[in-house]
Amino acid sequence: MRYTFLLYSDRADSAQMTPEDWAREKEVYGAYIGALQEAGVFIDTDWLHPAETATTITRKHGEMRVQDGPFAETKETLGGFFAIDVPDLDAALAWAEKCPAAKTGRVEIRASAMGDD
């Protein structure tokens, strides 16, 4: 079963990080990615630019509208994701608990709806 971990954090928590802090953060995530790969459950990951760099579009009322920035103003923003393939939610929870983002923010776990009938 495919699960996606949506990684949320408060930008204020990382505002004062030094280049050395970022290097350590990348090492921690690199080790986590390595563990997922070694276990054979890794599908994909990405680290996103800050939410304020987003562009949001809608065609809800038939006309395309473009908005600079994220759709919602929130304290915590989506910073990245992991997609994994594991047997069940319990296995997904075990991997999510090990995710570095769980220590400083939140990890939202969602099962894939692809293939659901």
From TrEMBL:
<dbReference type="InterPro" id="IPR005545">
    <property type="entry name" value="YCII"/>
</dbReference>
<comment type="similarity">
    <text>Belongs to the YciI family.</text>
</comment>
<dbReference type="Pfam" id="PF03795">
    <property type="entry name" value="YCII"/>
</dbReference>
<feature type="domain" description="YCII-related">
    <location>
        <begin position="1"/>
        <end position="110"/>
    </location>
</feature>
<protein>
    <submittedName>
        <fullName>YciI family protein</fullName>
    </submittedName>
</protein>
<dbReference type="InterPro" id="IPR011008">
    <property type="entry name" value="Dimeric_a/b-barrel"/>
</dbReference>
